[in-house]
Write a structure and sequence with these properties.
This protein folds into two domains: about 130 residues, no CATH class; about 240 residues, Aminoglycoside 3'-phosphotransferase, Chain: A, domain 2. Strands 1-2-3-6-5 form a five-stranded antiparallel β-sheet, with helices on both faces. It starts with a helix and ends with a helix. It is of the alpha+beta class and about 400 residues long. The model has no long low-confidence stretch (mean pLDDT about 95). It is built from 14 helices and twelve strands. About 45% of the residues lie in helices and about 20% in strands. The radius of gyration is 23 Å and the shape is globular.
Length: about 400
């Protein structure tokens, strides 16, 4: 941390604001506050609308006792030159959506066992930049996640969704996300086309990626890259709920709640919106390796899906297990395949420009090997099976 960062923070927040923020963070009435450290936690982590994360910390005097306090500042920007108009409230990655979430009551009264970080306000920095101040959840370590943690998180996601299946109407606001698999596929198509167009034009090193009858036999999952509409249509018929839409292990924290039971905290809320039952599991499970705690990925999926479904229908929600399983499998297919092959296009772009045939073949072969060794072929096949029911 350099001194100018502290000065910049203190110039952005007047003393009265700092007193309020420190008091809310400490849940106490404070009569003096100091900012003495600003620590960069991470950059934008690949999302062009995210400009970074900082921890602001210092001391405050409450009831004649000096106590440490801290909050996290997250900065958003409206980027230029990336996919689509991020200023469009219907865009899958609308740049101000997380601010809108915190400024609203869109999540309502969250059920016991779930929470959002406490919100302490925002810093409006102009037409294309804004920062929010939220609860410091501490240093999170994904290596601490166990199978029980995944099960706890799945139940929490079901708890949030369950009221929308029984008595709570879906929220309405112009900035609420929706139809995410279609929007995401359209965003990634730009990068998929980097390899798809040369392949269609007859560039031999990419022939393994063509949608041919032979490939449909040896690689049935390639169908989803060229023929996703049956999955989109079947997803549209599922019961709809409101949710996080990107609850991977980097966007969730599990801690002890007020009663000593586990509490799942959802953050990075920029994709919040309308989704389908089961779909949240696609992001929750997307980083689970092929073998986890001595179980195969398929066994982990089965246990987590069962826990999610049991919680979802605990109040007699009219949802079948097949619907929840399809929501999971189809959402995983429609989000992970376009992303994976979009990233392949990004990696291939310089190789294609250089016409480096051997390097293109090697990159494609490695990519196909990784896909075929993972969970996606199984999930794609299951999604098409269930879509036909």
């Amino acid at each position: 941390m350099i001194e100018s960062e502290v000065v910049q923070i203190q110039s952005s927040l007047d003393h009265a604001s700092l007193m309020r923020i420190a008091g809310e963070a400490l849940k106490a009435q404070v009569d003096d506050v100091v900012v003495d450290k600003v620590t960069k936690l991470k950059d934008g982590a690949g999302n062009p609308t995210s400009a970074g994360l900082w921890r602001i910390s210092g001391t405050a005097r409450a009831n004649a006792v000096v106590q440490p306090w801290s909050v996290v500042m997250k900065k958003f920007v409206n980027p230029e030159g990336t996919f689509g108009d991020h200023n469009d409230q219907t865009h899958v990655n609308y740049w101000r959506r997380e601010l809108d979430v915190f400024e609203s009551d869109i999540y309502g009264d969250l059920p016991d066992g779930t929470a959002l970080p406490a919100y302490f306000g925002s810093l409006d920095e102009g037409p294309d930049s804004v920062s929010i101040l939220i609860e410091d959840l501490g240093d999170l370590d994904r290596s601490t996640w166990t199978l029980d943690t995944y099960v706890t998180a799945a139940r929490a996601l079901a708890l949030i969704e369950r009221p929308y299946l029984t008595h709570v109407p879906l929220p309405r606001a112009s900035w609420i996300n929706s139809d995410i698999p279609r929007k995401w596929g359209a965003v990634m198509q730009r990068y998929v086309d980097v390899w798809r167009l040369p392949a269609v034009a007859g560039y031999e090193p990419l022939e393994q990626l063509l949608d041919t009858p032979a490939n449909r036999v040896t690689r049935p999952w390639i169908r989803a890259l060229y023929e996703p509409e049956p999955l989109f249509a079947a997803l549209d018929r599922l019961p709809h709920v409101f949710g996080h839409n990107d609850p991977n292990i980097d966007n969730l924290a599990v801690r002890l709640g007020p009663g000593g039971a586990p509490e799942v905290v959802l953050f990075d809320l920029q994709w919040s919106g309308i989704t389908n039952v089961g779909s949240e599991l696609s992001q929750l499970l997307c980083q689970v390796p092929a073998t986890f705690e001595g179980r195969s990925r398929a066994e982990v999926d089965e246990l987590v899906l069962a826990a999610y479904y049991h919680e979802l229908v605990a109040t007699n929600a009219d949802v079948t297990f097949a619907q929840a399983e399809f929501g999971y499998a189809a959402s995983a297919t429609l989000r992970e395949l376009p992303f994976s092959f979009g990233m392949l296009g990004l990696a291939l772009e310089p190789l294609l420009e250089a016409r480096d045939d051997d390097a293109v073949r090697a990159a494609v072969s490695a990519h196909l090997w990784a896909i075929e060794g993972g969970a996606l072929p199984r999930l794609v096949n299951r999604a098409y099976e269930l879509a036909a029911l």
